[in-house]
Amino acid sequence: MPDVRVTQRSVRKSLFSLDVSKSSGRDGVPPIVLKTCAPELAPVLTRLFRYSYSQGVVQYSWKTGLVHPIPKKGDRSDPSNYRPIAITSLFSKIMESIINSQLMRYLEDHQLINDRQYGFRRGRSAGDLLVYLTHRWAEAVESKWEALAVSLDIAKAFDRIWHKALLSKLPSYGLPEKLCKWITSFLADRSIKVVVDGACSDFKPINVGVPQGCVLSPTLFLLHINDMLLTSSIHCYADDSTGDALYTGRANISRENVAEYRDKLVSEVESLLNKVSDWGRLNLVQFNPQKTQVCAFTAKKNPFVVSPQFQGTPLLASASIGILGVDISSDVQFRGHLEERAKLASKKLGVISRARQYFMPAHRLQLYKAQVRPHMEYCSHLWVGAPQCQLLPLDHIQRRAIRIVDDRVLSDRLDTLALRRDVVSLWEPSRKELTPFLKAGNASATPLILQLFMGGGSHLPSREPHARLPPLL
């Protein structure tokens, strides 16, 4: 890879692409100031970034962050039930984006990232991986074969990366010495402090993991985990890892032969798990056998009782497996997933109903589109062919939403869920959906609306941290 080129044009482009709705970093400089003053700042920042890269040094103020813990579902007295949202320096993010764009272009052009990695890559999504996996398993079931799948859980995947292991891998990808030196400085001597209700902790040093909230961190994670994919047949979406083994022989065989090939499937899965476990020991990565899921996909009536072992823990096959926010049953159906989606969407719609008096019909409609409908459409291309009786509860929720909106003109413009399920690229999280109702909001509605964003089960299955509700405008 050639050395990273920092030009005024790339700096100016990064400045203009800043999202002005985002928070300022610890330095207190709002993104709107940087974006507005981009032509004047670009020459100065270009010289600063070039000097930082040439010397392989990242200044300390760029390596400190403010962490705001956002509650997830569960006991709020348990620290593990909080999602940390880090606020880092905007200047660092600008330089990271310049480096990251050139680094990812090099990695993709030279096909250095394993093809079984679907996370953090342009043109790939969680839905793509799920389509591939469910196609394999459905084909096995329809052909009277069997498949044994395992979904792995990496404990604190991003937060516990061993720096020495990661940095030792960078030269093998052909990265230039200056870039390796800069990344070494980027990871070293980092510190964070936690902010809760205006109160701050002291700065605490962080000597493991890739920094949360940084542009370059996902790419560094891909480079770190890439060799695990080279040594096994695992498929990944970032840190969500899934492996399987398939029997593709004759369909009509005796019960004794069924037991024999099932033993072979278990042996194949155990071999895969052993390779993953060996990689984890070399890289100080911990897997959680208690949270590892196993599911046997089969159309046979006799149960799959043989279970593989992972790090000395037997893994019992369950009736379904949850992967990337989708629950898939052992016959490759989505009954449980659709029921759960309907319950969650109904709960959120109830919140909107209780707050309806505070918003105009157009704003109620936008709330429904932004906070309810995505739950009923996530990866719908997987289950678009589900029986109508399983899809009816979703249609019923939309009819409830139409009654809550209480505006015939607006409701007539709302496409049916059936129509939208036949359309590609249904929805992407966007603040644009929310801006109109935020501007028209009543402060009395805030406690209710916050339940949509921060209440139990509020996170969309997009695997990205959900945006919090900003102050009412």
Automatic annotation (TrEMBL):
Matches recorded under Pfam families: RVT_1 (PF00078)
Superkingdom of origin organism: Eukaryota
GO BP annotations listed: DNA biosynthetic process
Domain Reverse transcriptase residues, every copy: 51-328
Designated name of the protein: Reverse transcriptase domain-containing protein
Species this chain originates from: Parnassius mnemosyne
